[in-house]
Design goal:
Number of helices: 8
Distance between the termini: 42 Å
Radius of gyration: 19 Å
Structural class: alpha+beta
Largest sheet: 8 strands, antiparallel
Shape: globular
């Protein structure tokens, strides 16, 4: 199995702090810039799994770069540059304490809740009689709180505004941006023979202006079905062919793990990790139409540090 990047502890010039998230390590540079390193860690059910996935960080970073560039006409985003296949440098914004989840189809956790009897998600009413993987008449917004630790929680638009988590005018703007981004993502996916099923977006504020932050439309934040065969599989009640992290969740569920106390993560063999890696690379090539070039992973830490340091040096000169 190829070398993987499980954790970084860099010391960049001007570095104020570092935050190790589930998947990304984020460095604060002079309270002005962020360096976001996409590691090869993989999480599911809010648990970081014990082994990394080769090239996963590169896949996520490069897909996010691709879509941030392709949607910059819809909403301004945080990205300044991508100096390394696994790292993005961008503007530091004040993150909004919510995640905007847009769903085009009834699937995943929404379907599991629906099958258990729920007919409302985040204040959005879902009609009776829907089936798994059925398309909604229009995409729906089901925001969640953004938890620093533990599980995010579903929340309604009304509760977000009533609790003052986000001001109403800002939230209204974020709603419009999220739906417009999803429409563009669906259009781009359709051109590649895919269906963008659902996804999440994160936004922040910079000088009072709404900015798109983090990644978008990657397999860690999105679910894709293959368009070919969707209708036939849906009519037969069969599982959809999909490109997303859901296949990892399903593998965990089938092996008795859903992130609950006392449950044990099943063994992740090298063969399984390589298979997950192939699925991630497949999505990159399918969604972008570009060939994936595996970066040299023999000295990951040294390469990333050198490339990012050079970028930061140039940005400081331009300041």
């Amino acid at each position: 199995m190829a070398e993987t990047l499980s954790r970084t502890d860099f010391g960049f010039k001007g570095q104020k702090s570092v935050y190790h998230g589930k998947v990304r390590d984020v460095y604060d540079i002079d309270d002005r810039l962020l360096v976001m390193v996409a590691t090869d860690r993989i999480s599911a059910f809010d648990v970081v799994l014990p082994k990394g996935i080769p090239y996963k960080g590169q896949v996520l970073n490069q897909i996010a770069d691709y879509f941030l560039t392709a949607t910059a006409d819809i909403v301004p985003n945080w990205k300044v540059g991508v100096p390394d296949p696994m790292a993005t440098v961008g503007l530091k914004c004040e993150p909004l304490k919510i995640e905007m989840i847009v769903r085009g189809y009834l699937t995943g956790s929404a379907w599991r809740d629906y099958a258990a009897g729920a007919r409302e998600i985040c204040g959005v009413k879902i009609p009776d009689g829907m089936r798994e993987n059925e398309k909604f008449p229009e995409p729906i917004l089901t925001p969640t709180t953004k938890a620093d630790e533990g599980h995010d929680e579903n929340i309604s638009r009304e509760e977000i505004i009533a609790r003052g988590i986000v001001a109403e005018d800002i939230y209204t703007q974020v709603e419009k941006y999220a739906l417009a981004l999803f429409a563009r993502g669906q259009q781009m996916a359709a051109e590649r023979g895919l269906i963008l099923v659902d996804t999440k977006y994160e936004f922040g504020l910079l000088d009072g202006k709404v900015i798109l932050i983090d990644e978008i439309h990657t397999p860690d934040s999105s679910r894709y079905f293959y368009a070919d065969g969707y209708e036939e599989r849906f009519e037969k009640g069969e599982a959809q062919r999909q490109l997303s992290k859901e296949f990892v969740r399903q593998w965990l569920i089938s092996n008795g793990f859903m992130g609950k106390e006392g449950q044990q993560v099943p063994e992740m063999t090298d063969e399984y990790c390589d298979e997950v890696s192939r699925r991630y690379i497949e999505l990159y090539e399918h969604i972008t139409g570009l060939e994936f070039h595996r970066a040299d992973e023999s000295a990951l830490q040294e390469r990333i540090f050198a490339n990012v340091s050079e970028c930061l040096g140039k940005l400081n000169e331009e300041k």
